[in-house]
Amino acid sequence: MLEDYFDAGSSLEHLRCFGEGAHIDGFSEYLKERGYSRRTGSCYLLTAAHLSRFLEDNDVEFESLDHKIVGQFLEHLHHCDCRKPNGGNGKPARNGAAAFYRYLRGVGAVQAIDDETTATLPLLVQSFRHWLKQHRGAAESTVSYYCRGACQLVGALGDEPSQYDAGTLRAFVLERARNSGKGATQVLITALRSFLRYLASERKCSAALATAIPSVAVWRLSSLPRYLSESELERTIDSCEVDTFAGVRDRAILLLLARLGLRASDVAALRLFDFDWQDATVLVSGKSRREERLPLPQEVGDAVLKYLELRPRLDTEPVVFLRIQAPWQPLNPSAISLLASRAMRRAEVSTPSGAHALRHTAATQMLRQGVPLDDIRILLRHRSVDMTATYAKVDLELLQEVAQPWPEVFQCS
Q1: What angle separates helix 182-201 from helix 140-157, to the nearest 10 degrees?
Q2: Separation of alpha carbons 143 and 359, rounded Å
Q3: pLDDT by residue (tens digit) across 14-33?
Q4: How confident is the model at residue 405 (pLDDT cuts 50, 70, 90)?
Q5: Is 206 left (phi over 0), alpha (psi -120 to 50) or beta?
Q6: Residue 300 in contact with residue 255, Cβ under 8 Å?
Q7: Helix axes 373-380, 355-368, angle to 10 degrees
Q8: Which residues 6+ apart lie within 8 Å of 305 measured at CB?
C-alpha cells in the first residue's frame, strides 16, 4: 500500500526503516481504506516515520507510546530541525500524528485507553464515567456533561466524598447558579445528583446527599416549543443541492429529522443494517440503548437510497452517514445539528436552530393533522405522554376556541 502514496524507492526504504516496518505498511492500508488522498496520505506517513524516529532518539520504547508522548512530539514539531523528509510541522503533520496514534491503538500496538481526556480526570470521575457508559448506557454527550459537573464538584469540595455534607453541596450549587444560565444550572444539578447516587452505590457517601441538591425553578409547560412553519420546513429541505454528494447526504438527514422526529444522536447512530427495505422500516437506537422500529416513509427512503448510491463502499464502517471528505468517519450528533442549522440559515429561517427544532416541527405537524398525542409519543419514543404534552400548546387557534371568557375583563373595559 505504500506504493499508492510514494513512487521513489528511497522514500519507501526510509519509511520502512523508521516506521516500525509492519506498522507503517499497516498504517498506509488504514489510510487507503478511509479514502485519504495521495497528498494527505504521504504527509501522514512521513509524520508517522518522524514520530518513530522521535521515539528512537529519546530512547522511548514503541509500546510505551501514549497521548502524553504524542503531545511531546507535537511540541517538538514547533522547533524541529530533524533531517528530511519528515512530513513538515504544520497542521497536516499534527493531524497525521494523531491518526497514526489512533491506528496503533486500534490494532493493539500500544496500550488503548478510553480516550485522551479520561486520563486527566480525577479517579472518582473516571470510575463514574465508566459506570455511566457501561451500566447506564448513557450517550457520549450525556457522559461528557455529567463528568464535567462531577469534575467541578470534586475540584471544589475535594476527592473525599465521605466529607461532603448538605450545606457545602447547596453552597456549591448556588455559587455556580449565580454565574450560569438556567439551562446550564439544570444540567449541573442533574449531573450532580447522578454523581452522588453513583457514589452512594459505591458506599462512598450517604444516599441522602442526592436529595440535598436544590432545584432551580423551571415550569416545563410555560413556553411554546420552537418549530418551523410548513413553508420554512420545505425551504430548509429544498436548500440542499441534490446534484452534489454533500447535498444528497444533507437532504436525507433533514428528512429523517423532520419526518420521523429523530434526534441528532439517533441519526448519527444509524447503521446500514438498521434499514429493512422490504418492510419499509428503520431500527432506531435511542436513549439508554432503547431500540424501536419505525415506519419509513417513501420520500425518506428514496432520499436515503440516493445517498447510499453515492456513499463510499467501506467494509469497516457500517454507520450510514459519513463525512464528505477523507477520512470517511461517521458524523457525530454535533455535526448533524450544525448541518441542520446551516440549512435553516440558507432557507432564511431565523428563530429555530439545530436538529431538535426539526423534531419539534415533526410533532407539531402531526398534532395539527389530528394525530392523537399518544401516537405522537410512540413515534418520538417518549417514556411518558407528559413529555409529549408540551406540543399540545402549539395550535393557538384551537386554544382560542376552547378558552373560557373572563367576565371581569369586559366589566373593566
Answers
A1: 80
A2: 22
A3: 665 654 556 777 888 888 77
A4: low
A5: beta
A6: yes
A7: 150
A8: 277
Do domains 119-218 and 230-398 share one topology? The answer is no
Q: Which of 87-101, 156-170, 371-385 tops mean pLDDT? A: 156-170
pTM higher than the cut 0.85: no
Q: Where are the domains of the chain?
A: 2-106, 119-218, 230-398
Question: CA torsion sign, 367 to 259 to 187 to 343?
Answer: negative
Cα dihedral across residues 348, 353, 356, 360: positive or negative: negative
User: Which among 263, 261, 341, 272 has a CA at the least distance from the CA of 309?
Assistant: 272
Local structure of residue 393 (DSSP, 8 states): G
230-398 architecture in CATH?
A: Orthogonal Bundle (1.10)
User: Residue 331 corresponds to which amino acid?
Assistant: L
What is the CATH topology of the domain spanning 119-218?
Answer: DNA polymerase; domain 1 (1.10.150)
What is the per-residue DSSP string for 76-97? HHHT--PPSPS--SSHHHHHHH
Summarised one tens digit per residue, pLDDT across range 314-370 is 766 788 999 887 777 888 888 899 899 999 999 998 776 788 889 888 888 888 888
